[in-house]
Amino acid sequence: MARKVCDFCLKESSGILSGFEKLADGHYICRDCKSIINSYGLSLKHDLFQTLVTAQANMKDMIMDTYLDKNPVDETVAKFFPMPAILMHGGEKCINAFPASITVNKKDIPSENAVSAIVDVSKYTINNIVDASDLSDSETVEGTLYLTDAALYFLSPKFVNCHRIGYINRNTNDKNRIIVSTPTKTFTYKVANTELFFLRERFYHKVVAAKHNKRQHLIYMTNDNKITITPGVYDISKNLKPGCYKVKAIKDAGLHIKDPLGRVHDYYENEETIYLDDGGKLECTGEYQLQWIGETKKN
Q1: Would you say 266 and 205 are in contact if contact means Cβ atoms under 8 Å apart?
Q2: What is the pLDDT along the chain (299 residues), one digit of tens a residue?
Q3: Strand (E) or helix (H) holding 290
């Protein structure tokens, strides 16, 4: 009798009691992968994010790229990034909508109800209530954490927080918290499956790159050390020389650095420089000015 193979982790069954199961879509899944997918609250089927959460870390980027090579961009957007149930600002795209909570001081909570849609969020309706400093007189407020291509919002019946995307701490080892750190304030949101939150963000940037013909290389040189790049994927050192670059965002819509080992670092606007390794890639979904400042990494 032929051994079954898990279509997620590619592990072979070891016998009748190995825990392999045939899904409704015809794919096989092992006990371990089934447990992982269930823990993320995903449906049991063979699809992109089910494959991503069960894959090894160094395979995730390749899985996303392969999916985009095989599926039309517009269909991918409609499937994975549909319009949310609440109204958005004009032109704003929703990437994530996750249940979340934050623990704050009771005295900081407004007495009036907050706005209930992103379209109504403005500087006049934002509260930006920070983490509780006194847990003995605190309250945990439930709401929804929305990540868009413009900002990170926490909407609750009691208050609204709104953050610049560059202030999000992307700690992949923290499985149930998303921390936003500004120069003077800290906001800690409890969520389930932080990894899925950031996987969806990463894939969204790849979708945007594909939509803007990511394989076109559009580099504008102003002098030997200063260039402007637009959406594209750039090989280091074929298209750009290796080294340390000072970054200025013209349109901060995504800049991603992949080193020769396949590890990905996302650039955010609170960073002054990036370092490009020889043999790596730079994936741009916005528009940035880069100024080469040296061969060694800036500490």
Answers
A1: yes
A2: 457 899 999 888 776 656 789 999 999 999 999 999 999 999 999 999 999 999 998 888 889 989 999 999 999 999 999 988 899 999 899 999 999 999 999 999 999 999 999 999 999 999 999 999 989 999 999 999 999 988 999 999 999 999 988 788 877 678 899 999 888 899 999 999 899 999 998 898 888 878 776 545 555 555 556 788 877 778 887 778 888 999 988 888 788 898 888 788 888 877 889 999 888 888 887 788 898 888 776 55
A3: strand 287-294
Residue entry with tokens 């304030």: 185
Q: Give the residue among 92, 100, 139 at the shortest CA–CA distance from 117.
A: 92
How does DSSP classify residue 33?
H
Measure Cα distances from 150 to 84, 89, 161, 202, 245 in Å: 15, 10, 14, 15, 25
CB 138 within 8 A of CB 109: no
Torsion of CA 35, 38, 40, 41, to 10 degrees: -170
168-169 β-sheet, strand order: 160-163, 152-155, 138-148, 94-105, 186-190, 177-181, 168-169
Which amino acid would we find at residue 51? T
CA distance 160 to 11: 46
Where do we find the tokens 């990511």? 214
**How many other C-beta atoms can be found within 10 angstroms of the C-beta atom of residue 27?**
17
* CA distances for 286 relative to 55, 205, 248, angstroms: 28, 10, 11
CB distance 207 to 68 below 8 Å: yes
CA distance linking residue 289 with residue 247, whole number of Å: 6
Conformational region of residue 103, where left means phi above 0, alpha means psi within -120 to 50, and beta covers everything else: beta
